[in-house]
Every structure is written in C-alpha cells, then in structure tokens.
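Next up, a specimen:

>
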Amino acid sequence: MHLSSPHTSGERYFCDHCDAMMDHDTESCPHRTRPKPDVPKIEVSEAPSAKVEEVTETPSSEEFCEFCSEYGHDTFSCPSFQLRRRASKSS
C-alpha cells in the first residue's frame, strides 16, 4: 500500500490543493494540511515578583536645593546658585 499516491494505474487526477492534474487526488495530496495533533498547553505561572524595598536616606535637614540637588540648604541659599547669580549680574 502506497500512502502518498493510492492511484498506481498511471492515471491523472485533479488535485484541488495543487490546482492541477496530478498523479494524486485532493484527498491523497501530500501537500494537504493535516490537522495538527493536540499539543498540550504548558501553563506558565508568573514568577514571584522580587520585592523591591525603596531605601531612602533621611537628610539631616528637610531643605532641598533644586539647583544642585542636595539636601541641607534651599535653592536661594545654595553657594553654587549664589555664585552663578553674582556672575550674571556682573556681566
């Protein structure tokens, strides 16, 4: 028994898949889409999320400088800000 071509008499048959006269018919076409076997679906459990603990340092002073991004003084009393301000006034 020959599975890919059951018609062994040399006759030609029309194959819908090949859209031509072939030595096989539509049912015995080697290009026919065969149903895929049921593949078991693998359940993927979510990995436990790493617990991220935010570490914050408590500054000695609640004042924060937006100019130099440091704690301990505010923007207007920042030494770097004062220098820049003086330089821009003298120009």
In short: Residues 79-90 form the longest helix (12 residues). The two ends are 101 Å apart (CA to CA). Residues 8 and 45 are 53 Å apart (CA to CA). The chain is about 15% helix and 10% strand.
